[in-house]
Write a structure and sequence with these properties.
Elements: H1 19-42, E1 59-64, H2 70-74, H3 78-81, H4 91-96, H5 103-109, E2 113-118, E3 128-132, H6 135-142, E4 151-153, E5 160-163, E6 166-171, E7 174-178, H7 181-188, H8 198-208, E8 213-218, E9 229-238, E10 242-251, H9 253-258, H10 260-263, E11 279-283, H11 289-299, H12 303-313, H13 323-333, E12 339-347, E13 354-362, H14 365-373, E14 390-392, E15 397-399, E16 411-415, E17 418-422, H15 425-433, E18 449-453, H16 455-471, H17 480-494, E19 497-507, E20 510-519
Antiparallel strand pairs: 1-2, 1-8, 2-3, 3-7, 4-5, 5-6, 6-7, 8-9, 9-10, 10-20, 11-12, 11-18, 12-13, 13-17, 14-15, 15-16, 16-17, 18-19, 19-20
Helix pairs in contact: 5-6, 11-12, 13-14, 16-17
């Protein structure tokens, strides 16, 4: 055995942490766990949205991604195309401006669907907005103490808040805002049987589809249009160069009874496109002209007067004053039910400005030609320009010469299964020579009424006529300068609109209307 002395000192350990630092770390961890628990607990989604939405409201509206859509809405040309008097030209700037709240906060306060409702359909003074915040949004609301602009309103334990002229309350992650304090209190104290059902809420949200907003309404008798419409739904979609509003409404029973003679048996039909022009209308109620005349008299309380006029016009030469009126009425009697009308334009080169109106009406061509042949012949020795109806048997056309040129010579003829008529011989001849007149395109959706307007072209035609009169001193209260100053800006804004259209249909007491506006990217130069 070696005599070397060995010394054993045992195992060495690292330096121990001070006891105080270990205790502080545990406190920090505990504080973080408590804070996380508080955040989790106070931002729970404890209340279904529908439980805070009153069911008995005159209107309910739903929108999605409200703040995310601001850029798309601001880029739309629709705002610039609307009349300046509406003040819509400022909308893009308002949509784009900084509202003082970061975008990420807005996205957390209103992340998805937003529901708007109220009873006041005249001044909208009781609007209530309900939405579900994200957990981050609920946390931000819990930190409202850092925002001095938010005032607390105890409200008997309901814990309302007020910011500016808006009151709001929070239940779980549901945020409710209203300009009406009583309306907000009612929503916060809503009984389950007074709240909107989950199925009704889902139906509204699904009906929104790709629209920007969707809503339903119930009108009181003293509301705007409340004497005619009982209830309905509507939707709105705004794109860069187009806007569409669709509405379906139910007529009140009293109005349905009043209009029964005109609307009974009416259902949406396939409409044919009217002749091209600045203003176009296509109508088909499934009833010929004679039936529409009599039904209109009943609907508007003028049945006796309308019947007397029809009887007078349709009287035979022995019983009445003229065979011309009876022949015209016999022609009109069989026209319809499809009718198309168009304002083609205005001829400023006539002796007076002459609107050029065109129409095509469904008819039995054999009966029409018989009626043409039955027209009284002009007196013997009359000149070609004298004002008598003249039937050209070779061309199967009827003309009525007036003092002036061809734009003041009403003309009618047969094309396919329709009568073609125009206040202008030039327009009528052009339509009769066009093969498309006999088989016009069909509109894509069934309806009873279609109307389309080219605002700039139509307004320009009217403006040119008015300017001619003003330059001649014949337009009372206007000189060319004042006329330009008043209507020039409107004409400039309308230059960006290609077309405004309306499509309406009726079926079993329900009226469906679709309004559309199509704009150009850049307005044409006047």
């Amino acid at each position: 055995m070696s005599d070397t002395v060995r010394i054993y000192g045992g195992m060495k350990h690292g330096a121990r942490k001070p006891r105080g630092r270990r205790y502080a770390g545990k406190l920090v961890l505990a504080a973080l766990l408590i804070a996380a628990g508080w955040v989790y607990w106070t931002t729970r989604d404890t209340h279904p949205v529908q439980s805070l939405i009153p069911a008995n409201r005159a209107y309910h509206v739903v929108a999605k991604d409200v703040f995310a859509k601001r850029a798309r809405l601001a880029e739309s040309q629709i705002w610039k195309a609307l009349p300046p008097q509406l003040g819509a030209a400022d909308v893009p700037a308002k949509l784009s401006q900084d509202i003082g709240v970061p975008q990420w906060i807005l996205n957390n306060l209103v992340p998805d669907a937003c529901y708007v409702m109220g009873n006041d359909m005249k001044r909208f003074g009781d609007v209530l907005v309900v939405t579900r915040m994200t957990r981050v949004g609920a946390l931000l609301e819990n930190l409202r103490g850092f925002f001095p602009a938010i005032e607390e309103d105890f409200a008997g334990g309901l814990n309302l808040r007020k910011m500016g002229g808006v009151y709001y309350g929070v239940r779980g992650r549901v945020l409710l805002l209203s300009t009406s304090r009583p309306g907000l209190i009612e929503a916060l104290t809503l009984l389950p049987d007074k709240a909107l059902s989950a199925d009704a809420l889902d139906e509204m949200t699904q009906s929104l589809g790709d629209s920007d907003i969707y809503g339903r309404f119930q009108l009181a008798a003293d509301d705007p249009l409340g004497d005619v419409i009982d209830r309905g739904t509507f939707s709105l979609r705004i794109d860069k160069t187009a806007a569409t509003v669709a509405c379906q409404s139910a007529l009140r029973p009293a109005w349905r009874e009043k209009m029964a003679g005109l609307l009974d048996g009416v259902t949406p039909r396939t409409l044919e496109s009217p002749p091209d022009g600045v203003l176009r209308v296509s109508l088909d109620l499934g009833k010929p002209v004679e039936s529409l005349w009599k039904c209109a008299g009943t609907a508007f309380g003028k049945q006796a007067e309308m019947d007397q006029l029809w009887a007078k016009w349709s009287a035979s030469p022995e019983e009445g004053e003229s065979s011309l009126s009876s022949t015209v009425v016999s022609l009109l009697r069989g026209l319809g039910p499809g009718m198309r009308f168009s304002l083609v334009g205005v001829d400023l080169n006539e002796i007076v400005p002459a609107p050029e109106v065109a129409a095509t009406l469904e008819a039995d061509p054999v009966k029409v030609l018989e009626a043409f042949k039955g027209l009284p012949a002009p007196p013997e020795g009359s000149q070609p320009w004298e004002t008598y109806l003249r039937y050209d048997e070779a061309g199967q056309v009827v003309r009525l010469p007036l003092i002036g040129g061809p734009s003041l010579e009403p003309t009618a003829g047969v094309k396919g299964n329709a009568v073609v008529m125009s206040s202008s011989r030039t327009v009528a001849e052009s339509m009769l020579a066009d093969p498309a007149t006999a088989d016009p395109p069909k509109l894509p959706k069934p309806a009873n009424l279609y109307a389309a307007l080219k605002p700039h072209d139509c307004g320009k035609a009217a403006f040119d006529v008015a300017m001619m009169l003003a330059e001649a001193g014949l337009l009372r209260g206007y000189s060319p300068e004042t006329l330009q100053a008043k209507y020039g800006p409107w004409l400039e804004s309308a230059a960006g609109v290609k077309e405004v259209s309306a499509l309406a249909g009726y079926d079993s007491g329900n009226v469906t209307v679709e309004l559309g506006m199509i704009c150009s990217d850049t307005a044409p130069v006047n």
